């Protein structure tokens, strides 16, 4: 399997290749040689390459603060992409005067609007959980400024129309303007978060270029709390942060040793505090900081694992949709609805249904086998 660095380089190459193809795509669209559905799919593929790059960077980052920022940025970008797809799907439906008409060879069905709404809201919830406080404050302010009430009113019209239901075409422009205003606010938050990420990376690079043996530099790095680099210790965290016990010297947390007495033997795997160059008071502060940081790193690892699991489940569902599209001739939206309905009927999770589809793919008849 490729290492984290090689995977990141591969993602960078794929992202650059997707960006290089945009001028030709725009020229094709301007010349009228590309349908709206095809254009949307190609833009979606380019954005997916960029999203995969951000996720790969978050996956291999070793600094917890940088990882949190990357995970927040990934979810914000992904939610923003789903919001853009919702804008395109709704505008097409309003302009056609009919809600998400049935697919055919010339007019493939638009994505499921309800699915787009649910997925983007889930992305924004994860973004809010990982973003720093200053970005969260800006996000709350942006949500207040977004035309969410108007968006919900137009969403209800789209959803109430049902499959193939009539829609007022005059609402196409108001829908597009409303969604665009929301996307503009999302872009402001995205720029703010990206700026914070650049500043955090620059600070970490500068810290790594300083003398690692300087105690003041070490304390500054550790005092940063979540902004500090991860530190791994041989001993258990509970051993390091234990309260001063009986016989400790007042104010130091160190056991008093009578003159002429031998020091107790070192305990394997335990961090010895007496021989460090910082002094007992500074050492105890270091231990407290390291213990708190260890707890944060454990929580961060669990959060990152949850995000990776979410992304893996999405990939699994996408593969299952592709299998149903190949073998049953379904549109992407129809394949998703079929799996979702099956999951509801059987009381199973959607990823479990997707996994079952992939396991049985070899036995599926249909379009692919017919050639």
From TrEMBL:
Residues 297-358 form the ANTAR domain. InterPro entries: ANTAR (IPR005561), CheY-like_superfamily (IPR011006), Nitrate/nitrite_sensing (IPR013587), WH-like_DNA-bd_sf (IPR036388). It comes from the Bacteria. Pfam families: ANTAR, NIT. One of its GO terms (molecular function) is RNA binding. SMART domains: ANTAR. This is ANTAR domain-containing protein.
